[in-house]
Amino acid sequence: MNDSPGRAVPGPSPSDGERPGAPDGRDGAAEGAQAPAQQPPAGGPKWSAEQPPPGEWSSPGTPQAPQTPQPPHPQPQPGAGWGSYAGPRAGQGQYGPYGSAGGPGQWGKPPAAKPGVIPLRPLDLGEILDGAVATMRSHWRSVLPITLVVATVVQVISVLVQKYTLSDLPVTSAEEPSVSDVVDTLGGSMLALVANGFIQLIGTIVATAMLTMIFSRAVLGHTSTIGAAWREARPQLLRLLGLTLLLGIGGVLLVGVLIAPGIALGNIDLGLLGGCVALPLLLWLGIKFSLASPALMLEKSSVATSLRRSSRLVQGSWWRIFGITALTGIITTFVAGIIVWPLTALGVAIGLVDAGATGLETGAVMNGWAPLILSAVGAVIAQTITMPIQSGVTVLLYVDQRIRREALDLELARAAGLENYGSDAAAPPTGG
């Protein structure tokens, strides 16, 4: 019988096997050949041969194999996504140049997810500074009490040391002090200064450790109480102290080695040359290891491992990290100066009224209670504001470098509860 118009000639087609009630008289071999293509692969979706090579992200115009529904990712425990680094996951590459053009028909990348204070993508300078300030503003109940307590304790001890120890140093005197008097006075003052410096170091380490935990939670959109931050930071405090002492002592030894030949030979020019070499070397090492503290706290690593991690993360981005760190230092110094200097000037004016003009010669103006207390109040306010900004910028620089190099944004998205984040390519906008 002739085929009537509009009817297809019976024969095997890829859609026959999917229609209910299809004819049964098909070739068994053809049916068997099609069966494997109809079955989804066991164990969920796998990376296919069409997967782009590492280091690239697929665009919407790239042909892809048919996708099967992906099971939701299990919810990680709080704080997940940081862990010790074991290399990028399979299929996760590094970010290329941000903002590159996409494939045919692409309307641009959709806005990055922002579960917390930063978007989950490579950050620019403004986003890093804004993230630090936003965390201090939105989580002030946790951030400000930590820095306020630490700054207050440190400044109270500093005032007591300066009032009862440094005030004993002779400034001017009608009688020439004996050598033993000078040695005793300087010895006691140096001991008090060392003790004061150690207390300041301990306070700074505790504040830095707890603030690091708070900022890491803020990135995920989670809040953290002071007690929770303390419990998370406490196991790593001794290691953070060791890291800080190692970097400080190492810097002192480096400077000593470079200027020692000039001192030993009595050659001032050689000593100055050693100092000129030491300063840029210290700066380079300081930036190179600037991310060791957040790496140690968030990855629960050792001192040596955190130094290696910082060196690896900073590699290739030294100038960028240096610029952001230097700008942050300039901003915080300017803010601190605005707060401290007016109170210090007021204290000096009160001291001049109490001690008279001779107080400047004897040092009584600066050693009076009014200038010491007002200066300490200004320092407490300044440190309460600037310490979180400095700590936050360091933590966000660490997060940014890991997003750029290790696709940490995928882990952070899962930790924040964003299912299937980054699993599919961006689709063009719908609705028109």
UniProtKB/TrEMBL annotation:
Q: Show the stretches that span the lipid bilayer.
A: 143-161, 198-220, 240-264, 270-298, 319-352, 372-399
Q: What UniProt keywords apply to this chain's record, in alphabetical order?
A: Membrane, Transmembrane, Transmembrane helix
Composition bias (Gly residues) maps to 93-106
Superkingdom, according to UniProt?
A: Bacteria
**Residue ranges of the region described as Disordered:** 1-113
Compositionally biased intervals (Pro residues): 66-77
Q: Where is the composition biased (Basic and acidic residues)?
A: 16-29
Q: What is this protein called?
A: Glycerophosphoryl diester phosphodiesterase membrane domain-containing protein
Q: What is the lineage of its organism?
A: Bacteria, Bacillati, Actinomycetota, Actinomycetes, Kitasatosporales
